Amino acid sequence: MASAEQPASASPLFCLGHSHLRCVQSASAETGIAIDAINFWEDNSEVLGFPDKPVFTPALQQRIRDCPGILFSYIGGGGPTAISLLSHPRRFDFVLPQAPVLPLDPKAEILPVDAVRAVLRKKIQPFLDLLLHVRSLARHAVVHMESPPPCADAQQALSHIPWPLFPGMTKEIAPRHVRYKVWRLHSDIVAAVCADSDIGYVGHPPQAVDDEGFLRPEFSLDGIHANHKYGALQLRQMQEVR
Amino acid sequence: MTHPYDGIPDYRRWRSGMATVAPADLDPVVAFPFEISAQERIAAAGSCFAQHVARHLRVHGFDFLDTEPAHPLLSAEIARDFGYGVYSARYGNVYTSRQLLQLLRRAYGRFSPADDVWEESGRFFDPFRPSIQASGFATRQEYDADRTQHFAAVRRMFEQADVFVFTLGLTECWVSREDGATYPMCPGTVAGRFDSDRHALLNLTVEDVISDMTAFIAELRAVNPSVKLVLTVSPVPLAATALDRHVWVSTTASKAVLRVAAERLTELPDVAYFPAYEIITSPSNRGGYYAEDLRSISEAGVQHVMALFLRHACAPSVNRTTTAGDADPQAYLAQMQDLVDTMCDESQLDP
Hints:
Radius of gyration of chain B: 20 Å
Number of helices of chain A: 6
Largest sheet of chain B: 5 strands, parallel
Strand content of chain A: 5-15%
Strand order of the largest sheet of chain B: 2-1-5-9-10
Largest interface: A-B, 21 and 20 residues
Oligomer: heterodimer
């Protein structure tokens, strides 16, 4: 918990969000960079009314109001995984306008990127609502941290999926470029919301990706999330912002 | 003394067939040349009115052929916004016989219009289905990939349909002076830019429509020999006419041309005419099947048409209930009206 007596620059970094927050929580001890983290993925009890009208508990609302400095958001970030980690039984792909030469899955149905964007936007809207809720409460800057890029090889994710909960799903990781495009599209949506809402936006650390933009294997935790090494890079990014 | 009118059935006399029949009981179909079973795959195309036909065919349990269905990721609302599920493939409204013939020839690579794409503010519009994505395609790559996929779906539709229902909508259309390519909408209305040096008005004659449709049927049967056709004429009046005369005069001329052409086309084997136009425009209902704009067709009118279609053209195994079975019929009707309003891009001519 941040102390009101500490100058904002020396106080712990106040972070809240979901599963991608875990990487900076893991990195905090080894880097010596203190954070004050609220991970809704581990404990969602302070989020009420999700997904229709999500709001924080009064106590958390007050805590956000009292935050003495920048508040870092890891809210959401799971949209790309939900839509594109596994190959859909009816495989799909799309042309990403920012990188239209990226390969198309030859076995896939091509969807309009605007339709995929609409699907993704609808999927992540509750998380965007939460992010805007944070913005409405915080007295100081709010900065959202981009979720990590996908790994080119995400096979290791297969062993972490509780398959009985997903009957009918293919047990096949989607082609890497499909996952990459969905992630880019997701980032564009979130960045645009941030730009329109006076929320800062910090992209992924460039050192963590390969030439094609995929997360380097040494920064991957489980094929979906980034690990403590990535978290350390992000903590430095957060310090630079502050 | 006898004459040919002695003993004719009631439906052949105006008094007994029209004047003394309750509007809802009007049945000008009388007989239909073939029966459609629930197992036969029906495809549909045409002008705005064809959307109603397609919608009812779906809800009555027909095997409605949709060879380009929305991906399951897309919600119904998103799918509708991107032109999925309206017809048997994602071709949008096909208003004229020339456009239908062109669709088939383009799908099989026999015609490639020189006017390939319209680019506006970095977005790409299909001149031949300009409303399929209201904001156009994001990239040329997407446009090309989508069109390739679309044509494959159109070919599947033509080859797999057991029955093809086509609603003839308009005679007035705009064509490219360069190669005769026919636009569904005048360039510059929904998308594109009108250029009188490049675009010309064509008002199809009876002979034109018959020629187009005869060619279409021949080419369709070359890939699907057993397909049956049901023709209807849209009762929806023109939103606007490009000719310097009253829109109602252009409407009656257009519908007369289409009606005569349809009549002549029924001389071909397995081509039937279904009198949806007559049901809606009949004096019997005193214009009651038109909405307040005197152009849109009311749901009651569509249900009358479809009830008779089910009674006369469909096998008894087909669900002949004319309501859609929705728990909230008002919401259903409102939604469907919204659908038709949204997709009837010809209304752009009369904003």
